[in-house]
Amino acid sequence: MTQLSPDAIVSDIAASLPGAAEVFRKAGISFCCGGNVPLAEAAGKNGIAPEVLLAELQALVDAAGRNAPEDTAALIAHILTRYHDTHRTELDWLIPLAQRVETVHGDHDEAPLGLTEALLALRDELDSHMQKEEQILFPMMQQGGNPMIVHPIAVMRHEHDDTTVLLNNVEHVTHGLSLPVGACGSWTALYTGLRKFSEDLVTHIHLENSVLFPRFENRAA
Questions:
Q1: Which single residue of 21, 43, 113, 147 could bond 50 by disulfide (Cβ 3.0 to 4.6 Å)?
Q2: What is the spatial distance between Cα 42 and Cα 39, in angstroms, rounded to a whole number?
Q3: What one-character DSSP code corresponds to residue 8?
Q4: pLDDT in single tens digits along all 221 residues of the chain
Q5: How far apart are CA 148 and CA 145, in angstroms?
Q6: So where are the chain's domains?
Q7: Rounded to whole angstroms, what are the CA distances from 221 to 23, 71, 74, 216?
Q8: How far apart are CA 112 and CA 49, in angstroms?
Q9: Close Cβ partners of 5 (under 8 Å, ≥ 6 residues apart)
């Protein structure tokens, strides 16, 4: 169990802790462009007692990964069905919906200009990444792993960082997934879907980085 520090950087917390992004959104704390600040400082600037925000986030830390399957084969199967398949399915409808919203509302001051491009880049990165896991890393794990497994795991960790940058870009062009007053049904559905997709992706990365990968890195050490 990790103890969260008041000095932890807001953007790092949002990228790695499932549920943190929504906590920050509700508190009015930017975790994208303005997120390179310590947690305590961000809380103070928004009139929130740092210890209150810290306690809420610490509860998320304590709960993260709690429901992950103990068995490695079951955990991999969970990741494949709950996250890999779901990401692909959701991006298939989020991308054309983003394109429609950009086309119809492109002249609106709060239009998510560049969102389609950002989602296409994220889809390409994710698809390549997930294929490597499905075809190389996960089969190695299912066979028990070996000392060389640390190398593909290191590559996957690096690609997780790249994916986080692309996800932050989605957050940026959507103005923090903040809907304007009077937003139409398509715009609302788009941001609702993106909120769920983003949270899923952070949870997916957390499960791999903090639960699955260490099982094999520790064994190879």
A1: 43
A2: 5
A3: S
A4: 478 888 999 989 988 888 998 898 888 888 877 778 899 999 888 889 889 999 999 998 888 877 788 899 999 999 999 999 999 999 999 999 999 999 999 999 999 999 999 999 999 999 999 999 999 999 999 999 888 999 999 999 999 999 999 999 999 999 999 999 999 999 999 999 999 999 999 999 999 999 999 999 977 55
A5: 8
A6: 10-63, 72-220
A7: 36, 21, 24, 9
A8: 32
A9: 39
- Token pair of 25 as six digits: 């959104």
Rounded Cα gap, residues 122 and 131, in angstroms? 14
Q: Which tokens is 176 given?
A: 């923090």
Rounded-to-integer distance, Cα 198 and Cα 121, Å: 14
Rounded alpha-carbon distances, angstroms, from residue 203 to 65, 81, 112, 213: 8, 14, 24, 14
Token pair in block for residue 220: 């190879």
- pTM, entire model: 0.90
